[in-house]
């Protein structure tokens, strides 16, 4: 039986990440030997966003709330990697994977080393995963709310393409924050 036929049978003819039945194809979960155990069946939308992370749409990947619990290791690994790319540490922290599956998931993550050093308002170096406190009320353009002084932002990420900014969630919305208005906790 071909890998595609095995995956189609395993998935019930739908994307193993989002459940769509449009434009399905095999996606190997690297490092892979090409077997069905190390591949997933995905729709064209999921495939495009996984292969082009700069196009990743977080709202599309709300489906990972379900697929991250898959008993199929390759699906769990890909869910982990996409959640990592989206900076969804809250969901990653809920996941449980055996040590060998976790090692496989980590092996495929791109290095997130940032050559630029990002510092808070006091000159303290900030790293991905740190928590910071907002030191000034900040109007969030386009979101219709103000990030209040004293708000703690946990599990920040350091974007490589936007200097002197960090990315984090305030009021459930992912936003960029200028480091000059932050203090490391």
Automatic annotation (TrEMBL):
SMART domains on file: PhnA_Zn_Ribbon
Domain PhnA protein N-terminal proteobacterial: 6-51
Database matches in Pfam families: YjdM
Domain of life: Bacteria
Record PANTHER family: PROTEIN YJDM, PROTEIN YJDM-RELATED
Name of the protein: PhnA domain protein
Annotated organism of origin: Sulfurimonas xiamenensis
High-level lineage: Bacteria, Pseudomonadati, Campylobacterota, Epsilonproteobacteria, Campylobacterales
